[in-house]
Amino acid sequence: MTRALPWVGLAVVLAVAELLTRAIGSDYFPPVSAMLSTLGGEAATASFWAAVGHTLQGWAIGLALAALIAIPAGIVIGSSRLLYRSLRAVIEFLRPIPSVALIPLAVLIYGSGLESKVFLAAFAATWPLLMQTLYGVQDVDPVATDTARSFGFGRASRLLRVTLPSAVPYIATGVRISAAVALILCVTAELVIGAAGLGREINLARQGGAVESMYALIIATGVLGWALNALFTRGERRVLHWHPSAR
Questions:
Q1: Does 46-198 carry CATH code 1.10.3720.10?
Q2: What is the pTM of this model?
């Protein structure tokens, strides 16, 4: 029964939205049933899946670059109190910069293709993962570190056998958060600069007055985000099956 509650809640929301859109009768707010029907039609076309593929391509590359930058940097910076204090001001300055504000720079340097989308996604996804890695490294139990040191473990061994396993739950959470952020920036880049993907298809549908298709594609981006989050959540539970938070 508990597992069915989310689906019951979704069904209620869809039913209420269906009634409201039919009661309003506006051309800009078609019924939910029409949106879902249009989405089903879109899902049967090759162009739809090509757009999904383009979005996922930019998302995957951007997230991978963010992980390659943020995780090693977070481990190195978090392991050194002096380095952390030296770079904290720089991190706190760069972290709040909205990635959308960098769109003109990305277009100027990379144009309006995949490279700009990857740059924006990687920049946005780096900061949550970097901060989570920093928190994970700094939250290591000092008793465990001192014990490893007393047993003659060197700095590299302590990092691999004590620090990194303790920081894995934080890193896994950071990856999941950064995955959502990277997808948001990919779709935003497609909407604004016209890079290939679902965002561009949404904009084309809007320009062509295909309101039902526009909403259907917006729903598709939401479903894609939900599916990726569910995938990462499941993977996080499997990787951290030994950790109390996953039990």
A1: yes
A2: 0.87
Q: 208: buried, middle or exposed (CB in 10 Å: 19+, 13-18, 0-12)?
A: exposed
Tens of pLDDT, residues 201-240: 999 999 988 899 999 999 999 999 999 999 998 888 887 7
Residue 27 DSSP SS3 = coil
Per-residue pLDDT reduced to its tens digit, 169-194:
899 999 999 999 999 999 999 999 98
Neighbouring residues of 171: CB distance < 8 A, sequence distance ≥ 6: 71, 74, 129, 132, 133, 136
Cβ atoms 198, 55 nearer than 8 A: yes
Angle between helix axes 46-79 and 81-94 (nearest 10 degrees) is: 140
Can you tell me which residue has the tokens 């597992």?
Answer: 3
Residue showing tokens 């939250």: 139
Gyration radius (Cα) of the chain, Å: 22
The DSSP letter of residue 28 is T
